[in-house]
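FIELD: query
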Amino acid sequence: MNDNERQYQTVKVVIHGHQYPIKASSDDGEYIRRVAKYVDEVMEKVASESRVKSVDRLAILTALNITDELFNALEKRDKLIQTIEAKAKKISDSLSTSSQDE
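FIELD: result
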């Protein structure tokens, strides 16, 4: 199914007490709700831990917090990939050495 044939729906989400209509493909509605719920939770946490009253500033702080989480997760993922690749190489080298000994 190409983009022209895709079915869309409007998903209504609430973030920091404000309702927003989000256009999404039919099969993405639940995902959009989960993402919005997470943004709302982070925004409420930031609001409760700061004295910021401006919704714009609160949204920026929320975006920075979520981006920080993303960057930390990506860094952990990259380190894990490096560890796995190093171990795989070690195993591969070990197997190559043992097959040459036979």
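FIELD: remark
The first strand starts at residue 8 and ends at 15.
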